[in-house]
């Protein structure tokens, strides 16, 4: 049974704000695409040291995925709105740290915190949809939430380009911080004033707010070291280290540390502290923190293993020999913890329904297929018709990405007219057909506008699958676990993307090496000319095309597997309204 919360206008406004926040956080995943060279330069990295800058991207992904199950579980126990507010606050703090960063380590730290806040918005938002709409009416709102999330992949680079046209890369993250705080303030204003944990205005911890603000301001100044202040005769003394040469031993830094201690002391002693540590302390006793830690370590090791690899060269990172054993040990430990804990992170029986765990399996294969489009379509364009422009190659993918959110909304609308186990296979077959056509592309195919049809078809297919997979999961899990199960759905898709790109890259590289072995020596093709002629370059290019054709066929296979599994495992979704009353 649903809560009926959808009858209150304030709840709909909250959901709208949460959707905007998700779109904004999703855009931040891609916002560094154009800003990355400037971010590297500011930390002393050269453009040919791109691999050293990989943590700027993988750090955000690590935060986005690794702690999702814990955040989802907290939203089940503490409530959707408090977690949404907390996630926005964390996102804003991460943006502030990134904007004020002075070296690579602080940039990565800021991006990690941003990722935690951005990823934490999704599970409570999906759960909020389930709270507000009965199972048969959830399709369109789930489609809209999925659409705004996917829209971030299109808006992110554009947003970054607009900001960079008028400022530098730090302005992107200052704006992130400001927008995150504005969204949090709007959400706070529209939440239920009589809801759980609500505090009357007169009882709010304004002293705690002031101390938190001063602490963040001090931290920002320590990290930025503004020239106008550091060169001041009087004010500049606050930036001179008391001993040594560390910026964290300056009077300003030490004062900031004192303010932080005062803030923490205030939270312990205040009647209504800014951070409700008493209720969160009770929450910690209800949450399997050790299980969450084991799962976080395991997911983190998987992300670092695959997200740090260069898809064109290798399937996994060089650190895989020690990361993968850590992941395996952590997952085994998590499984044992799930069996023995009094209150496990994933409540026992939460995924006992076949459509529920089936949705996770389908999401995994959807992610494995989707990543091939996101990585290899631009790669194909760069290899063939856009050799001299990375931007033009990326714009080829935009045709696919724009169709994704359109498909998500359409899928939500269609879900009112057909069951999830019927719509999802149709969607994934469309994507499989698109991939199989991409496997026929030659060196000039992307010069023809008709190829836009295959890109649009593929994007529509993936978009159509978003709402039904989410709906099947929510319809077959109880209200009390919607947060953690929604988080697991996202984790399944992201892990599918990481493992998918690894497997498909491995298969593709084998095809490339096999094709390369058949190329005649350059001297033979070029008539003894020392430098490779066009014929040899074309032969190497064709070997690369063979590699990508293999990847596209592999992605089509993943899409077909998702189609078959969704038709089999999610079938009960058509015959059963909900288990919310369980």
What does this protein look like?
- The model is unreliable at 1-7, 193-202 and 573-582 (pLDDT under 50).
- This protein has 22 helices and no strands.
- The radius of gyration is 25 Å and the shape is globular.
- It has helices spanning 9-30, 32-42, 54-66, 68-78, 80-99, 104-119, 122-132, 139-166, 169-190, 206-224, 227-230, 251-269, 277-286, 289-307, 320-340, 354-383, 390-414, 420-438, 452-475, 482-517, 522-525, 534-569.
- The protein is mainly alpha-helical and 582 residues long.
- 49% of the residues are buried.
- The longest helix is centred in the C-terminal third of the chain and has 36 residues, at 482-517.
- 72% of the residues lie in helices and 0% in strands.
Question: Count the helices. How many?
Answer: 22
- Compute the separation of the termini in Å: 9 Å
Largest sheet: none
The secondary-structure class comes to mainly alpha
Task: Give the SSE string.
Answer: HHHHHHHHHHHHHHHHHHHHHH
Categorize the overall geometry.
globular
How confident overall, as mean pLDDT? Answer: 85
Kindly estimate the percentage of residues that lie in beta strands according to DSSP: under 5%
User: Considering DSSP H and I runs of 4 or more, what fraction of the residues is helical?
Assistant: over 70%
Rg, alpha carbons: 25 Å
